[in-house]
Amino acid sequence: MSKNSLLQISNLHANVDDQPILQGIDLSINRGEVHAIMGPNASGKSTLAHVLVGRPGFDVTQGEILYQGKDLLVMSPEERARHGLFLAFQYPVEIPGVSNIYLLKAAVNAIRKERGQPELDAMDFLELVNERMAELGISSDLLYRNVNEGFSGGEKKRNEILQMSVLEPQLAILDEIDSGLDIDALRVVANGVNALRSEERAIVIVTHYQRLLDYIKPDFVHVLSSGRIVKSGGPDLAEALEEKGYAWVTQSEDVHAGVSAGVVQ
Amino acid sequence: MNAVENYQTLYHQLADQLPGSNIAWVRAMREAALLRLEELGFPTRKQEAWKYTRLQALEKDTYYPAPIRQASISDEEWKKLPLASLDANKLLFVDGHFNRILSDIDSLPPGVLINELSSLFNRKTDRPPPMFQNTRQAPNVVHALNNAFVFDGATINILADVQLVKPIHLQYISTAEDKSASYTHNTIIMGPNSHAHVVESHVVLGEQSYTNNIQTHIQLGAGAQLEHHKLQLEGQAGIHLSVTQVEQDQASHYQNHLFAFGSQLMRNELKLNLNGEQASCLLNGLFLAQGKQHLDMQTQIDHRAPACTSRETYRGIADDNGHGVFDGKVKVHPDAQLSDAKVTSNNLLLSRGAEIDTKPQLEIFADDVKCSHGATIGQLDEDVLFYLRSRGIDEATSRNLMLFAFASQIIQQCPLEPLKKATHELLLKHLPGGDGLQALLK
Fold this sequence. Notes:
A: 265 residues, Rossmann fold, B: 442 residues, alpha/beta, 2 domains, ten-stranded mixed β-sheet
């Protein structure tokens, strides 16, 4: 395993409500890389994202996931977050009664504690958050509103990106972050994600459409179908998909079946 | 002897010591209430209004009227009491007896008249004051007991157009020995277009078992506005029995914000008559039943005139073997067209032994109305829990944060800032895991 390896998924099978959804995923991701996971509806894209962050009810039945060389599957969702895993939700929940700033502060301090860093004091914390909000074009009143309550679709997505940029994860997974966004909002969100690109961290973009990838250029593109990666390639694969549709790869799935579709290195 | 006979005997033993014992109308009033007590008896489960709540504790032990406390309350004890520092016109009752020294009603603006009820009991009149004229018809046993033994309370008169900025704080402290009872009666009469905040707080010094029985009669003139807040922090062995009756004239507005964290047994009855057109009310309640606490919230809103509005939201949390009851009834009378009513009850159960019974009810006898009710009983939302955990917050803290959020939404609606702040702090003190949240929410 290379020094740069961040995540290694081997032969991953997972059930949701006793239905097999993931049926043998192999994928490895190095630091510094951006991977796009594409695929038709119900191909298992979101399931993969949620399995990675440990959502209860998503049961891994076979296979393993190594994250930073450690067994990810034994960790609770909060431990995963504290070790630098982050999921931007496709449908962020509303939490009436909890303001955004409380959530951010609690999350930042939980993660800092894990890293052995002292808690941020209120001033430093606000400075950090305000800086990130300005970059994302988010108005500061959003900070004092209840988490996602009454937010527009675009505000919810920006809020996810704000959390991501404040928490500075090692591995960020964006689940359909482009859904429901107009082109201006898409640009802002993409800028937020691009600002986070670095040699240290990796980003996984789960998306149905190629559009987002015009703004966030992936290093690798994988196509998921029926719970398996049926094709992997470079950014040009996304363009080919846009042109030819998913049927192009999913219909030829049988040809590829049995071939382990790892990362194209 | 049965329980009723025990209280009758107790009365006859004490009759000469109760306030107003040498005044004819007071004695007559008390004796009428005793007859009523005999008629009613203690409630049984067969009575719909008492399906979930019994007063066995009062039957088993005969609680005697608490004497006037001789020892003073030390500054240290005093400052520890919740809301001790609330900037208010304060009336303090120790074991139900008005304490002038610890009260602060010297800077009342003109048009605000406050007296202790016991002074009324010295008045020789032919007829009792209005609130004691119908003791023979007392609606239930709590009421009848109160009328039989009542020894003090506050009578507050706010004249027309007076805007009272500083709240009036009715602070009740229980300090007496085991099996004592305090019986108080408050009257709040507000003239047209007046405005006031009244804060009622019930606290305890010690761990004794006792009963706190409070009757409150409120009358709002046309356009009057009253924000009535109640913080119930009785002791673990305390019994809190309360009946509040509100009469509202045209375009008056009444708010009731109730926060119930204490007592082993609470029965809170809140009855409103919207008598004048366009009268409105807002009732918000929060109760937290832990250990073996039994907290029963009864409300009834009668829309008796056209175009009145009522809004009611109660939230309950039950943990351990705690038991909560919410019975919220809205009755729209035949002439009350254009009534607008909404009753909501949301509840959380945190353990297998916990129970909450909720019953929002609408009885509608007019045809052009907008009324709705809804109730939920559930556990914490798993999706929200996962979201918080996915941000690195551990499961226990996430759960506590969600509980806090659930309860906080009721507190947030309290319009009196210092009380809101104090109640948030008290919530953290009483919520499971609240200490851990305190640092987080700073």
